[in-house]
Write a structure and sequence with these properties.
Distance between the termini: 44 Å
Number of helices: 13
Shape: globular
Radius of gyration: 21 Å
Largest sheet: 6 strands, mixed
CATH topology of the largest domain: Chloramphenicol Acetyltransferase
Strand content: 25-35%
CATH architecture of the largest domain: 2-Layer Sandwich
Strand order of the largest sheet: 1-6-7-8-3-17
Helix content: 25-40%
CATH superfamily of the largest domain: Chloramphenicol acetyltransferase-like domain
Number of domains: 2
Structural class: alpha+beta
CATH class of the largest domain: Alpha Beta
């Protein structure tokens, strides 16, 4: 593979004034989340580059960098722009998203930036790699530093970029809520978080655990007709006294499949973790156009025996009751707890995240007592089109970490990507198909 363009694109618009990261940005972490958009047609390179430039001009904060000062982190210190790379591949055609999982080290995405460079130097927070194949197709690899913004924001940026490329544009509005307003939700400091806050002692070496587990892992992606989910949802609603949602049912379905194919004992705890978007939650007044991290982790937990035994509709009820609704007082307590930790200087010197605790999911999903599910159907990745063709998205996976992601492909199909122990992959999807 030969690189033919390796460039930095910066906004030509005036950057907003420096903005301090919120405690939810710090909680989310400064690591990268990434994925690949699969394009059926090879795009016009100069046009896609010019369209990215226009998208940056409309969203100038995307050109910013991070800078650390003690326990504080700031955006917009310098207009460093984004990394844009074009690669010409020797392969005839682009791979299928079903052919292989995207892992760190894939040639379709940029290498991971050093955390120290992200926190202390003027490094881009966004990396885009367009790979063109000899005969047909292309891929667009994307990588974003997560503390800048959550997946909803970056999917919206990608949609804007694609719309400009296609000769249209989507109207954007600057949010009236800032990152400081997010932190201010916890203006009353709290010694302890709410009972729903997903955290664990900070004595777990997740990198070593992932390295140890990775050789035992595999990843599979399969598409399913939406009709199957609709039928299962109707069946669950008929059996349940609670108006469960399709997301509740998907979480229940994957939770049960994970428990059934696990070899953990019946009396051990089995958890399912998910991220919840606080935009639109009652009384929090976070608008849908807020740009930053407005997400928080929640979980449900039962003994493995119960997850294996309960019918899907009951697991959907249990999941919904344990995690929902997102209550204002709990969110304010959790943010107040994070503010207390920040005030007391409990920030790790190397990672730039909270040092007194870690996210509970890191330990459980690496040790195999939990599964993390991203229901990404509502991010709108299936709305991103280039040259009239929808781009099919697949996210990068971490071998060693039990994880599932659900994507909307089109009006009639969804895709499920499951990453787990190689010996359980077939069993997992057999369990799904049984329902």
């Amino acid at each position: 593979m030969a690189i033919i363009v390796n460039d930095r694109l910066s906004t030509r618009a005036a950057l907003p004034p420096p903005e301090q990261l919120s405690v939810l940005d710090i909680l989310t972490g400064h690591y990268c989340f990434s994925g690949v958009y699969y394009l059926r047609k090879k795009p016009n390179v100069e046009l896609i580059k010019a369209s990215l430039q226009s998208a940056l001009d409309q969203n100038p904060a995307v050109s910013s960098s991070l800078k650390r000062g003690g326990n504080s982190f700031w955006l917009n210190c310098e207009n460093v722009g984004v990394s844009f790379t074009v690669v010409y591949s020797d392969a005839d055609s682009a791979p299928s998203p079903d052919s292989a999982a995207i892992t760190e080290g894939s040639e379709l995405i940029d290498p991971e930036p050093q955390l120290s460079d992200v926190l202390y130097h003027a490094q881009p927070l966004h990396y885009f790699r367009l790979t063109l194949f000899k005969q047909a197709g292309a891929t667009l690899g994307v990588k974003h530093v997560h503390s800048f913004a959550d997946g909803r924001c970056m999917a919206k940026f990608m949609e804007q970029w694609a719309a400009i490329y296609n000769g249209t544009s989507i109207w954007t509005e600057n949010s009236s809520v800032s990152r400081a307003d997010i932190t201010a939700l916890g203006s009353q400091l709290c010694k302890y978080p709410s009972t729903r806050f997903s955290h664990a002692p900070a004595d777990f070496d997740v990198l070593s655990a992932l390295k140890k587990q990775a050789p035992l892992f595999g990843s599979v992606r399969k598409s399913l007709p939406k009709e199957y989910l609709t039928i299962l949802l109707e069946r669950c609603r008929h059996q349940s006294d609670i108006n469960v949602s399709s997301s509740d049912v998907i979480h229940a379905l994957l939770w049960k499949a994970f428990a059934q194919c696990s070899d953990h004992r019946d009396d051990e705890s089995c958890s399912i973790f998910s991220i919840f978007d606080l935009r639109g939650a009652s009384n929090l007044n976070i608008p849908v156009d807020f740009f930053g991290n407005a997400v928080i982790e929640r979980y449900a937990e039962l003994p493995f025996s119960q997850v294996r035994r309960e019918p899907i509709y009951r697991l959907a009820e249990i999941y919904r009751t344990a995690i929902k609704p997102i209550l204002e007082n709990e969110i304010r307590q959790d943010i107040g707890y994070l503010n207390e930790e920040l005030k007391n200087g409990h920030i790790d010197s190397s990672s730039g995240t909270f040092s007194h605790f870690s996210r509970r999911s890191l330990r459980a999903c690496t040790e195999g007592t939990g599964i993390y599910l991203n229901d990404m159907r509502f991010l709108g990745t299936n709305n991103i089109e280039f040259d009239g063709e929808p781009a099919v998205y697949d996210l990068r996976v971490h071998m060693g970490y039990h994880h599932a992601a659900v994507h909307a492909l089109d009006d009639s199909h969804i895709a499920i990507r499951y990453t787990g122990l190689s010996k359980t992959l077939s069993h997992f999807f057999d369990e799904l198909s049984a329902y």
